[in-house]
Design a protein that fits this description.
single chain, 195 residues, alpha/beta, six-stranded mixed sheet, five-stranded mixed sheet, 3 helices, 11% helix
Length: 195
């Protein structure tokens, strides 16, 4: 005859000795947002990818204008994130907030007095096994305004571009300099912001 107390003790021991499950992080409700996580000391340049990140080096520059298309928009918070050279939102292990969705290749900047900005990164790759063109996600937060998204930066030579993307404001024409670095220009109007 077996003692039921022994089974109960054994069950309690197994449950008590199991490693505690790590609590799942609470993600922001807005899946595409990032402005609330921005550092306070920002300049007009964001480095999304460090120099040792595999892939073609890419520099995206431009000017953000007020909705009139002529007045430079100073102090606009720009948040950008992208995939790596294999099309994956790569994780480094220390991500927090929406970095848990957007990965490690992300960054912030504030436009200069002349509305100019610069993003230093690598050319992203399309998602593996999907028909979406390679892209860099961008959100903008005007001074005193709310964060909103704009059409992603996409590349004119990408065969996966849709007709809408090919004719949209996000398409850029990358050109390679004599050091092999790709350069692209993307001017932005604040009227492009969607929420």
């Amino acid at each position: 005859m077996r003692c039921p107390v022994t089974y109960a003790f054994l069950l309690l021991s197994i449950v008590a000795c199991r490693p505690e499950a790590q609590p799942r992080p609470v993600l922001p409700t807005c899946e595409w947002c990032g402005s609330s996580e921005a550092p306070s000391d920002l300049g007009a340049t964001a480095r999304l990818a460090e120099g040792d990140e595999p892939g073609d080096r890419l520099i995206v520059t431009g000017t953000i204008f007020e909705s009139d298309g002529q007045t430079p928009a100073a102090g606009v918070l720009l948040y950008a994130y992208q995939t790596d050279a294999t099309g994956v939102y790569v994780m480094r292990g220390d991500e927090t907030g929406n970095g848990l969705r957007h990965g490690a290749l992300r960054g912030w900047l504030r436009t200069a007095a002349d509305g100019r900005y610069r993003i230093e990164t690598i050319r992203p790759a399309p998602y593996p096994g999907r028909n979406a063109a390679a892209h860099i996600h961008v959100t903008l937060t005007p001074v005193g305004g709310a964060e909103g998204w704009i059409d992603a930066v996409v590349f004119a030579d990408d065969s996966l571009l849709t007709e809408r993307e090919r004719n949209g404001p996000g398409v850029v024409q990358p050109r390679r300099d004599d050091r092999g670095v790709l350069h692209a220009t993307r001017d932005i109007l604040l009227s492009e912001i969607r929420r």
